[in-house]
Write a structure and sequence with these properties.
- The radius of gyration is 18 Å and the shape is globular.
- The chain has two domains: about 100 residues, Rossmann fold (3-Layer(aba) Sandwich), CATH 3.40.50.170; about 100 residues, Formyl transferase, N-terminal domain (Rossmann fold), CATH 3.40.50.170.
- The chain has six helices and nine strands.
- The protein is α/β, with parallel strands linked by helices.
- Bound molecules: glycinamide ribonucleotide.
Length: about 230
């Protein structure tokens, strides 16, 4: 018998990827901490050549390829994804560079248990090429967002954001690299809050949703750019 306090069961998380999987790797690394409230039980890619698959296998996480091109329509593809997630008893789904739009059916199936990371400070710069568009607009602060997924693309209650200053000589690539570093910080933080129940969605009288966490947070200070 151990004297250690019993640990609460970790929430079972499936990660959906399409590419390199650096955010997936950050989630797997964070979940190694025995105190982390979630475990990554499977990684599914819709692209067979996705670099993240090898990273997940090297970390001992089960992987599967569900190639959307092998299915006649979006819904049958998603049913195959759900069947794989269900086989692993997944409770929470984290999209990590998963580049397929999901149907309202899939999104409703995982309501408030489906989260996404987007490389911009939502609701600004939804969609693709966020850094190039932000540079073209001359904005001085960019960032990244983890949010609950709703049927509209890159819309949903925001869980965590990080802000990154823009330098005069930044390119879309240099900016993407610095934002990605922050993505790797905030995605594990956001998943922990979802898994522990700390990130709760509340709805106002007009039906607008937002996340509350009961965390004290920081009220002072600001990122001023350029400084
Ligand atoms: C990340 O920057 C992520 O925010 C972005 O794709 C990249 C995936 O990198 N996602 C989107 O643009 C989704 N709209 P990763 O595979 O190394 O995590």
């Amino acid at each position: 018998m151990s004297d250690a306090a019993p640990r609460l069961a970790k929430r079972r998380v499936g990660v959906l990827i399409s590419g390199g999987g650096s955010n997936m790797a950050a989630l797997i690394a964070a979940a190694r901490d025995p105190a982390y409230p979630a475990e990554i039980v499977c990684v599914i890619s819709n692209v067979a050549s996705a670099g993240g698959l090898a990273k997940a296998e090297a970390a001992g996480v089960a992987t599967a390829v569900v190639d959307h091109k092998a299915f006649p329509d979006r819904e049958s593809f998603e049913r195959a994804v759900v069947a794989t997630l269900d086989r692993h008893d997944v409770e929470i789904v984290a999209l990590a560079g998963f580049m397929r739009l999901l149907t309202p059916w899939f999104i409703a199936r995982w309501h408030d248990r489906l989260i996404n990371i987007h490389p911009a400070l939502l609701p600004s710069y939804k969609g693709l090429h966020t850094h190039a568009r932000a540079l073209a607009d001359g904005v001085k602060i960019v960032g990244c967002t983890v949010h609950y997924v709703r049927p509209e693309m890159d819309v949903g209650p925001i869980i965590v954001q990080a802000a990154v200053p823009v330098a005069d000589d930044d390119t879309a690539d240099t900016l993407a690299a610095r934002v990605l570093t922050q993505e790797h910080r905030i995605y594990p933080l956001a998943l922990a809050r979802v898994a522990s129940g700390a990130a709760r969605v509340v709805c106002d009288a007009e039906g607008r949703e937002r996340v509350v966490t009961d965390l004290a947070g920081t009220r002072e200070g600001a990122l001023v750019s350029p400084m």
